């Protein structure tokens, strides 16, 4: 999706293409000289590990766009969001004993945040670079050799998710990698910055939810809704309300917010079923608006569904070091957060000793093999507990002086009475290597509510310590600025979306309060009448069978490289209004669709549409309204000498009957109309907003392609004897008018 402040960086992609072979050579050398010896040293069974083939392929990662933040941030830093897409053809094979394992393709995409800070007045002008993913990146791996077993359906999802979890443990918020560029630069505060604040979410109620349960496939019943709430990698689930389309939850959840702008609140509603939970709608809330408004109490329309509103009360809590705010909350809500920076430990005992209050006692040794195992250095991890929440650190192998370098956050209800319990354990044994208890009241003695020191370990040797930094911050609800115009329901985000989903809420509800009329563009009575007519027609033809497996709806790779186009912001009811799936266009958008730009201007306009034409079609809808839109990504791949066409999806197609449509896309590269040169997508069942994300290639020289025309038709896959119209719309693109090397991705 292309926002006005997301910039294309084709020059950078060209640099990556040129440098990729050299990067591959460096990585091949690294795998042989660094990675292979480390794998062999891990385990006696891995001593025969050998990389037999290391090839990083011809396809390099691509940066679809970069967004730079300059106004909302500190003047001594630069923040960049990189939209990364890697569809690689790398091949890496390794032999272990007689087994061959390998990878022969990777797909990865996500948003990587790069923070350059602090900015300096002397070379290298940037003190350090910090990297992390805002959300878990999407990952698909094509295994080879014996590891082909991981491609078995069911196992492949599990194997990819395990690797995603490994990436998340190091590179997804709140975890980050910081690389110092200047010598003697202290990067501790860059690796573990204090969070921006806390968002308190009151999940109150919903109404007019869609009916998902049915009896014998015909009689519609009531649903059993529950909600999943996410900020970053933290997810909570609400209770399930049985047989109620107007559920009342009255539950409260709290999330630590590490990056604003960047992180959003996601809410998904599901109908609980014994087999597969049905999707009932979703929300995406901008935390920037909540932070600015301080408090939002609104009915939000649900996306990706035909009806439903969700009532949320959102509170932004800032972090202050004021002890007056630490009194216990009568409702049992949190009053502070504790941030634990876990650094390292020193002189941990070996496994063949048991320590109790500093006294050492010998462990009975059963045999020599057990003795050898116990004489090695411990592989330790840390369990940190505050109240009823316990978090676990990573494991540091074979070291009596382990260094973890991790940060953890805990919600605190009463800082005067609660404590932090620390326990260091060996992964090979159940007994602890040392424990420590820190009363949070000790932090209150410091004016900054901070402790940074070594703590003596109990039940360990007399010279065993753990080094931690503890920071306590009170949660403060600030009064909203009376001069500020609140975002209200507009805090819900309506983009970016790859393809417009069916639904949105075309119905008007009486009970939820309406957003402020002044925020919605005024239209005439004729316009209102036309809009209501559009909504009624669209509602009649909606496909309500939109469900996805809980808890995370799957998304396919958009595939290539280009950022998608966002509609002109002046046509939206509110600049901040963003729901995950779009609603049927209101009148201002419809007016924009009528005035679709000419094909020759598509490459230059920041927001343009391929309007599906009704010319040469036998249409009887009695209107000149557009037949919908199709989103395409087109570019010429010089290396492969081919024209690459990515069909992303369609939206707002016009149905040909009450039965619904099963659309697919057919492509010709005119004047060639031979059957053998035809390309077509798969068929999507019963939808007016199909999403394909399918790529096609035409192997022609650039000179020949410049003389050709793309003929693209959206068709209805109908029964052979059906009388329904087959063609739903089509568009032709004169390729002589386009910059194909640069490419374009537009509706």
Automatic annotation (TrEMBL):
Keywords noted in UniProt: Calcium, Cell membrane, Endoplasmic reticulum, Lipid transport, Lipid-binding, Membrane, Metal-binding, Repeat, Transmembrane, Transmembrane helix, Transport
An example Gene Ontology biological process: endoplasmic reticulum-plasma membrane tethering
Per UniProt, what is the membrane topology? Answer: Peripheral membrane protein; Multi-pass membrane protein
Tell me where it resides.
Cell membrane; Endoplasmic reticulum membrane
Q: Where is each SMP-LTD domain found?
A: 5-182
Q: What residue spans carry the Basic and acidic residues bias annotation?
A: 525-542
Question: What are the C2 domain coordinates in residue numbering?
Answer: 173-300, 318-459, 626-747
Superkingdom, according to UniProt?
Answer: Eukaryota
What Gene3D superfamilies does the annotation carry? C2 domain (2.60.40.150)
GO MF annotation: an example: phosphatidylinositol binding
Q: Extract one GO cellular component term from the record.
A: endoplasmic reticulum membrane
Q: Where is this region: Disordered?
A: 483-579
Major localisation: membrane
Q: Which family does it belong to?
A: Belongs to the extended synaptotagmin family.
- What is the name attached to this protein's record? Extended synaptotagmin-3
Gene that specifies this protein: Esyt3
């Amino acid at each position: 999706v292309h926002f006005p402040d997301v910039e294309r960086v084709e020059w950078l992609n060209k640099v990556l293409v040129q440098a990729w072979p050299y990067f591959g050579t460096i990585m091949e050398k690294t795998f042989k000289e660094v990675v292979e010896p480390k794998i062999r040293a891990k385990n006696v069974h891995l001593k025969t590990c050998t990389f037999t083939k290391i090839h990083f392929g011809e396809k390099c990662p691509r940066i679809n766009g970069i967004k730079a933040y300059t106004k909302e941030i500190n003047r001594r830093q630069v923040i960049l969001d990189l939209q990364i897409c890697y569809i690689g053809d790398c091949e890496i094979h390794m032999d272990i004993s007689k087994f061959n394992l390998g990878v022969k393709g990777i797909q990865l995409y996500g948003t990587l945040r790069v923070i350059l800070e602090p900015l300096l007045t002397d070379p290298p002008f940037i003190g350090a670079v910090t990297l992390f993913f805002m959300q878990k990146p999407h990952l698909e791996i094509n295994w080879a050799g014996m590891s082909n077993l991981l491609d078995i359906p069911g196992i492949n999802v599990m194997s990819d998710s395990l690797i995603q979890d490994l990436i998340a443990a190091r590179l997804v918020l709140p975890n980050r990698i910081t690389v110092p560029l200047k010598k003697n630069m202290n990067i501790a505060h860059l690796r573990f910055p204090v969070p921006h604040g806390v968002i308190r979410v009151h999940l109150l109620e919903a109404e007019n939810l869609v009916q998902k349960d049915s009896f014998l496939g015909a009689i519609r019943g009531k649903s059993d809704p529950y909600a999943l709430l996410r900020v970053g990698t933290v997810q909570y689930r609400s209770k399930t309300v049985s047989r109620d389309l107007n559920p009342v939850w009255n539950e409260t959840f709290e999330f630590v917010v590490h990056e604003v702008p960047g992180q959003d609140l996601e809410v998904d509603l599901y109908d609980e079923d014994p087999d597969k939970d049905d999707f009932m709608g979703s929300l995406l809330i901008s935390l920037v608006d909540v932070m600015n408004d301080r408090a939002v109490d609104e009915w939000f329309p649900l996306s990706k569904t035909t009806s439903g509103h969700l009532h949320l009360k959102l509170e932004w809590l800032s972090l202050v070091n004021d002890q007056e705010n630490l009194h216990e909350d009568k409702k049992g809500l949190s009053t502070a957060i504790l941030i634990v920076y876990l650094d390292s430990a020193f002189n941990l005992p070996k496994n063949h000793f048991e320590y109790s209050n500093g006294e050492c006692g010998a462990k009975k040794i059963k045999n020599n093999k057990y003795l050898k195992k116990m004489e090695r250095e411990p592989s330790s991890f840390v369990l940190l507990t505050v109240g009823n929440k316990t978090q676990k650190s990573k494991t540091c192998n074979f070291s009596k002086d382990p260094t973890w370098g991790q940060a953890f956050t805990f919600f605190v209800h009463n800082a005067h009475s609660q404590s932090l319990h620390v326990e260091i354990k060996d992964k090979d044994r159940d007994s602890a290597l040392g424990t420590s208890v820190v009363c949070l009241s000790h932090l209150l003695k410091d004016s900054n509510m901070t402790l940074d020191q070594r703590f003596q370990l109990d039940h360990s040797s007399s010279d065993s310590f753990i080094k931690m930094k503890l920071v306590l911050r009170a949660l403060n609800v600030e009064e909203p600025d009376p001069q500020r115009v609140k975002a209200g329901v507009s805090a819900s985000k309506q983009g970016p979306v790859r393809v417009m989903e069916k639904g949105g809420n075309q119905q008007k509800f009486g009970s939820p309060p309406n957003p402020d009329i002044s925020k919605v563009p005024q239209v005439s009575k004729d316009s209102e009448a036309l809009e209501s007519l559009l909504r009624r027609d669209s509602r009649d033809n909606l496909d309500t069978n939109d469900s996805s497996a809980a808890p995370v709806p799957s998304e396919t790779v958009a595939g290539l490289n280009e950022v998608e186009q966002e509609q002109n912001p002046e046509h939206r009811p509110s600049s901040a209004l963003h729901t995950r799936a779009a609603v049927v266009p209101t009148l201002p958008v419809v007016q924009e669709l009528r005035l679709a730009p000419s094909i020759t201007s598509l490459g230059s306009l920041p927001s343009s549409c391929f309007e599906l034409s009704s010319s040469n079609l036998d249409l009887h809808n009695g209107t000149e309204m557009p037949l919908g839109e199709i989103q395409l990504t087109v570019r010429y791949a010089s290396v492969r000498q081919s024209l690459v066409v990515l069909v992303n999806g369609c939206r707002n197609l016009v149905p040909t009957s009450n039965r619904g449509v099963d659309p697919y896309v057919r492509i010709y590269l005119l004047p060639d109309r031979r059957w053998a040169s035809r390309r077509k997508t798969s068929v999507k069942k019963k939808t007016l907003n199909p999403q394909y994300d399918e790529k096609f290639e035409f192997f022609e020289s650039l000179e020949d392609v410049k003389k050709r025309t793309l003929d693209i038709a959206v068709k209805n896959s109908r029964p052979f004897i059906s009388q329904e119209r087959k063609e739903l719309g089509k568009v032709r693109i004169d390729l002589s008018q386009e910059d194909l090397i640069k490419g374009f991705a537009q509706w």
